[in-house]
């Protein structure tokens, strides 16, 4: 089996993956995370799922991966296609429109993102990683690191302060600018002239620190006033000689954030950086320039990241997502369209057989990862229907082989099919995460197993193969095979479920108990149609329930 090979955006080549760690055991992975001014859409999550799948593949190859995904909660301009966008900060705009404090806006949408990420089974939002702050650094909590990096760039001549106290990166000091995106000097100059600012020495220069008295988030690098506890002191320790006195109170530009946070949470040089295609220019191009200017020693590499990996754009019905056309779709719009005021979406999904118009998280995850990440994806309802069929086939076989009894040795046919499929599965993922080929290997096993109905040793082998594949796919429900809940527990749980709450995904005991509590509440209010609908939902998940005097019992069938 060949080793993992990745398409490196920086070199434009398919390259063998070789970690920086001399022992070959550890990998550092940084992913551009959400800008928390709105709910994340399906295109955002396709990019986030690229990093999740890549991480899972690396771990399956034996690496220990430290995966950092940032939270952008300040400094993100609306004109992302420009290196030095002059538009209004997206978070500030949302705060004005909602009438909220910007910190409240950020907290609200970050919380929503975390809920979505957990439902979609992103590993860096599971278990203890979900609460490890260093793995989810917030921009507003790393202003000292940003200002210290800016000061280093000023001292080394890679940046300058304008008459307003703003700081710009001097692109002329970095000859490699444009290498990642492939933009030549004429392209950069033409793009920069779209919004030329008189205070810039070169139209290509981009802002590291911005000054605007109307901005709702402000930090004064020369006074402890207004800083969170301990942060000004941290700035003084990171920049003991202080910040250039010409720099005025303000806020960071978008690009400096990830340079500072990846260095703080990982290292000055990292293995892999992921993001969406739209991040290549200007965001990642600017990251490379800043990190070069602030590098630790002259011997440090020009490019602080060894492998740049990007997911291509997601289209809906063959075109860019559009709110006007009704094709702008957030993850939450699919999880529970009616709760998110998308009744037309719910009606379309119900017509396609999705109960309550809701798309289960596992099906959406499968849909978003099933096409090659390095190719554009055209998202349609047909894709969701196909994903549902695929997940149901996988789940049905897994449920059967996970509970198959009997003894006896394994058959040669099953053994050979599994050996062949394992090699094909690994080779496909090693080939730049070729998901269609990997899925073909898995469904080859599904076809063989469905023909033979394996039991005993054969069933155990098929079960092990599916679980290994699901270490990457993460779409199977592998919870306990049954359980029970008392009437008192049903009453207590039903009382805590808010009206309109989405039905839980999966077959784990917590999900089953939540659905049983919803059914219990429906029966109490004599809404027998809803109670029957919930029983059918459990049945569609291969869960059989039995009403008892003291409660309800269930088991997987």
Overall spatial form: globular
What proportion of the residues is helical, as a percent range? 40-55%
**Number of beta strands:** 15
Strand order in space, largest sheet: 4-3-9-10
Q: How far is it from the N-terminal to the C-terminal residue, by CA?
A: 37 Å
Number of helices: 18
Could you list the spans in which at least 5 consecutive residues all have pLDDT below 50?
Answer: none
Give me the secondary-structure category.
alpha/beta
Largest sheet: 4 strands, parallel
How big is the Rg? 26 Å
On the 0-100 scale, what is the average pLDDT?
A: 91
Q: In percent, how much strand structure appears in the residues?
A: 5-15%
Notable characteristics:
four-stranded antiparallel β-sheet, 557 residues, globular, alpha/beta
Structure described in brief:
The chain is an alpha/beta fold and 557 residues long.
Can you describe this structure?
There is one protein chain. By secondary structure, this protein is α/β, with parallel strands linked by helices. Helices cover 43% and strands 13% of the residues. It is built from 18 helices and 15 strands. The strands form 5 sheets. The protein has a 4-stranded parallel beta sheet with strand order 4-3-9-10. A hairpin with a 5-residue loop joins strand 5 and strand 6. Helix 4 runs parallel beside helix 6 and helix 12 runs antiparallel to helix 15. The two termini are 37 Å apart. The mean pLDDT is 91.
């Amino acid at each position: 089996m060949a080793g993992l090979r990745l398409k490196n955006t920086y070199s434009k080549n398919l390259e063998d993956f070789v970690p920086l760690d001399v022992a070959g055991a550890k990998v550092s992975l940084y992913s551009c995370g959400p800008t928390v001014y709105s709910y994340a859409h399906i295109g955002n999550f396709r990019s986030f799922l690229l990093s999740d799948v890549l991480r899972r593949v690396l771990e399956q190859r034996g690496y220990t991966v430290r995966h950092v995904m940032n939270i952008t909660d300040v400094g993100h301009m609306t004109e992302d296609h420009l290196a030095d966008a002059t538009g209004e900060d997206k978070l500030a705009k949302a705060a004005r429109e909602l009438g909220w404090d910007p910190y409240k806006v950020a907290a609200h949408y970050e919380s929503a993102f975390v809920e979505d990420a957990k439902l979609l089974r992103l590993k860096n939002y599971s278990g203890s990683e979900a609460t490890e702050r260093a793995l989810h650094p917030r921009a507003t909590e790393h202003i000292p690191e940003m200002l210290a990096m800016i000061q280093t760039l000023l001292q080394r001549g890679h940046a300058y302060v304008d008459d307003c106290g703003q700081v710009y990166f001097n692109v002329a000091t970095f000859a490699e600018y444009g290498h990642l995106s492939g933009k030549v000097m004429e392209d950069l100059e033409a793009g920069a002239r779209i919004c030329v600012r008189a205070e810039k020495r070169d139209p290509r220069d981009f802002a590291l620190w911005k000054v605007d008295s109307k901005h709702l988030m402000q930090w004064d690098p020369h006074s402890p006033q207004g800083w969170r506890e301990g942060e000004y002191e941290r700035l003084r320790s990171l920049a003991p000689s202080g910040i250039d006195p010409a720099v005025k109170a303000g806020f960071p530009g978008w690009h400096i954030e990830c340079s500072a946070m990846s260095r703080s949470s990982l290292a000055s040089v990292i293995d892999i950086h992921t993001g969406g295609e739209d991040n290549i220019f200007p965001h990642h191009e600017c990251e490379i320039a800043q990190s070069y200017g602030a590098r630790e020693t002259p011997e440090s590499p020009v490019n602080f990241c060894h492998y740049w990996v990007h997911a291509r754009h997601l289209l809906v019905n063959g075109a860019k997502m559009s709110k006007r056309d009704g094709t702008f779709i957030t993850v939450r719009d699919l999880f529970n369209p009616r709760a998110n005021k998308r009744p037309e979406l719910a009606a379309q999904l119900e017509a396609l057989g999705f109960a309550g118009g809701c798309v289960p998280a596992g099906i959406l995850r499968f849909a978003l990862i099933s096409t090659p990440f390095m190719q554009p994806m055209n998202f349609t309802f047909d894709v969701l229907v196909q994903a549902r069929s695929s997940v149901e086939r996988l789940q049905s076989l897994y449920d059967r082989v996970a509970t198959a009894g009997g003894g006896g040795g394994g058959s040669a046919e099953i053994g050979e099919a599994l050996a062949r499929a394992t090699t094909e599965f690994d080779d496909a993922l090693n080939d730049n995460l070729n998901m269609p080929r990997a899925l073909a290997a898995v469904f080859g096993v599904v076809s063989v197993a469905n023909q033979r109905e394996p039991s005993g040793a054969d069933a155990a082998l098929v079960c092990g193969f599916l679980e290994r594949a699901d270490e990457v796919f993460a779409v199977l429900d592998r919870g306990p095979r049954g359980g029970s809940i008392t009437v008192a527990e049903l009453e207590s749980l039903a009382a805590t479920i808010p009206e309109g709450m989405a039905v839980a995904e999966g077959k784990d005991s917590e999900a089953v108990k939540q659905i049983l509590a919803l059914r219990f509440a429906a029966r109490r209010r004599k809404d027998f149609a809803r109670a029957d609908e919930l029983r059918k939902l459990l049945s569609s998940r291969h869960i059989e329930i039995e009403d008892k005097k003291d409660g309800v019992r269930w088991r997987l069938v």
